[in-house]
Amino acid sequence: MQTRFDNIFKxxxxxxxxxxxxxxxxSQLSMANLIGQAIKEKKYAIIEGATGVGKSxxxxxxxxxxxxxxxxxxxNKNLQDQLYKKDLPYLHDILEKDFSYAVLKGRANYFSFxxxxxxxxxxxxxxxxxxxxxxxxxxxxxxxxxxxxxINDLPIDISYEAKILMTGSSYVKPEKxxxxxxxxxxxxxxxxxxxxxxxLVNHTLLALNAAILLKSEGxxxxxxxxxxxxxxxxxxxxxxxxxxxxxxxxxxxLKHFLRHALVKQLCTRKKTADIESNFVQTLHVNxxxxxxxxxxxxxxxxxxxxxxxxxxLESCVKELKSAKEKMDELGQIQISVLIKExxxxxxxxxxISEKNKLGRR
Length: 361
Ligand SMILES: Nc1ncnc2c1ncn2[C@@H]1O[C@H](COP(=O)(O)OP(=O)(O)OP(=O)(O)O)[C@@H](O)[C@H]1O
Ligand SMILES: [Mg+2]
Hints:
Blueprint: H1 6-9, H2 26-40, H3 55-66, E1 70-74, H4 77-94, E2 101-103, H5 113-118, H6 120-126, H7 129-144, H8 160-163, H9 185-194, E3 198-202, H10 203-215, E4 228-231, H11 237-244, H12 251-258, H13 261-266, H14 269-283, E5 291-292, E6 295-296, H15 303-324, H16 329-359
Parallel strand pairs: 1-3, 1-4, 2-3
Antiparallel strand pairs: 5-6
The structure holds adenosine-5'-triphosphate and magnesium ion (MG).
């Protein structure tokens, strides 16, 4: 039976026209047909295909041609970029049907003018004036040219410590009426995400969005609910879902706090170094637990150590609080954000510890 996708995938068809090494691959076509049918019948399709078959075209083409809104989730940011920078522009060029597309990542991936200004003095301690100037010019140019302002696109290499001083986070975002809101790259990405037919996210964001939707009973979300959801690299999704739906702490959220210039400056050095160097190894955070009979087996935490680290973090927060009183207005704002972040980490650690006690045999 000939389907509407034959003409696209066949040798000499639409896809092959600008594709030097194009070959007709029956499995690629049958996957596209299956997806086209699932969309038409509003059914789920679970598909496993060999590596390198060209699954991206197989799911993108029928979804785009359906005219419906689509969210594609991939397991990591590199795959997001491959789709955004290569596959989608190519399809946009060749398909007769026009469509819009966008990519969305977590706030920490985007340069933030608000953070950059707020943390200017701290930034001057870790970067040279020349470097700061390059970054400022790059950010202005990104804004003027409607670039995405992704921190990884900076024209120079800077340390993680410097990056966290000029990127967004879930703990601080510009108020709707602040002048920073309209020039915030994280906000812009979310806005664009709302208005595009195809939206590329990653599993972390998809799982977090699901967790937020559930918690808020459908009221809050990171991106709009699409007509079609495609989970690429779906074998990896369980891991991200587990992180989003549990109180597990991962090393990135700890690192984000502990490596902040003000935490380093104001909190007892030994304490923060101790948490950072020992936490991951001893508590196995951000560690995919072994799978037993198809289920994740939770890694047992050592409650004694959990208590030690949550106490240490808590006393870091106390140190920040007492330093706050002596700060000027700007310093107080900076510290408030950090206190919020630190408190959240302590809370999560305590929750893990409680559950851990209950789970003890
Ligand atoms: N019919 C085709 N002929 C030649 N090259 C193709 C064809 N279809 C896709 N490609 C190219 O093959 C490469 C792999 O495609 P894609 O990333 O979609 O594979 P995949 O099936 O998702 O593989 P993986 O399992 O590794 O994710 C891409 O560079 C793509 O442009
Ligand atoms: Mg793939």
